[in-house]
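Appendix B. Extra example for self-study. Work through it before the problem class; the solution is given directly after the inputs so you can check yourself.
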Amino acid sequence: MPHDHIISAKQLSRADIEEVLDRAAEIDDNPAAFTQRHPGALLGLLFFEPSTRTKMSFTAAIKRLGGDVVDMGPVEYSSVEKGESLADTVRVVEGYADALVMRHPSEGSAKMASEFVDVPLINAGDGAGQHPTQTLLDLYTIRENAGLDDLTIGIMGDLKYGRTVHSLAHALTNFDATQHFISPESLKLPRSVRYDLHEEGATIREHTELEPILSSLDVLYVTRIQKERFPDESEYRAVAGEYQIDAQTLEEVNDDVTVLHPLPRVDEIDHDVDATEHAQFFEQAHNGVPVRMALLDLMLEGESA
Amino acid sequence: MSDDEQLRVSKIPRGTVIDHITGGEAMHVLSILGIEGGDGDTVSIVMNAPSDRLGTKDIVKVEDRELSQAELDVLSLIAPAATINIIRDFEVVEKDRVSRPEEVAGVLSCPNRNCITTGNEPVESRFDVLAEGVRCAYCGTIVRDDIADLID
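Solution. Structure tokens for the complete assembly:
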């Protein structure tokens, strides 16, 4: 892994991605071989925003490599409450850990923090910016279910503020993928992401309805539309209702599409999808452990080399 | 400069004359250069003078300071046609155009209120200069129009 820090999916080449996914596959095949890869290694967790999956899977990942975590804990019990800057916090915590994982509500926070530390820093979500490790586990799941080349993917929901969407869209430009983006007009991809995709020469299409393209998709990646993005509840309900998927629609229109979701979901994927073969989102969440193990293994390996 | 313009503001003995500034942008030029009048520099400004090339133009003369090319290149974002004259003993000793820098640091503030650079952090704003507009090096926000509004 040639990178000191993992800040954005934009920095990941196809070779970087494949190195992580291949290592994750090795771990999946034989997890016992990795249990003592990094004995005593300490991963510093700085979550300035709530997290279930990301935080728990990073914790599981470092423990399964023989290491452990040091956790800042909730912001309200930390020195952040006393007005400490993020720059100071990370400079202090880097002295306690071999690598840092950080989630913060401000865009650009991970990049800034990385400029103040020498240990590897992994962005676990910076506001509406990026979430590159989610993307790695998304790609791992897509590779297992549909393959990453000659891929037609639909990405639906909150494309404007959805950091998992931004990271995934960037990463997919490394592969032969056609990306369809489906969202209400007010939640379309931000200008900055569209600019990057254009610069990379990616094939992208934007839609406001799923129905016309659903039959062409290998993968449908659904994200949550958040209530707080709308001025009132009734407007939210009207819009969100148009971006929901259920088992009957899938069976009628495309009976072999893989459905993914970074979770948590609210009601954008009906629970009747869960029992179908389309549903791979729980598997996707579970893949967070081997993929994050693989990333940590490669980064810590580089550190001790 | 025509004789007419010479009459508006007299020649300076030594310093920098920035000519062909887009009409109305002189105050932004001073902001970018950090010239606020408090440090005692003698500064003359002509605004909205007629110009064959630009329609109207502004001119800024800063006495006793020779501004560096790096300082002046930032001006290209709001005054792409600006020309720089370095003056010694009332004579122009150097004449240059501004060119677009690859990045500008500490001059613009990010319009994204959720960008880390707008918080209370010890970090200078940094923007990459694109073919059209600028882009925050931290949050990625792209600004194409009204860049002058971002001047700190």
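Self-check: The domain at 3-97 of chain B is CATH 3.30.70.140 (Alpha-Beta Plaits). If your reasoning did not lead you there, revisit section 3.
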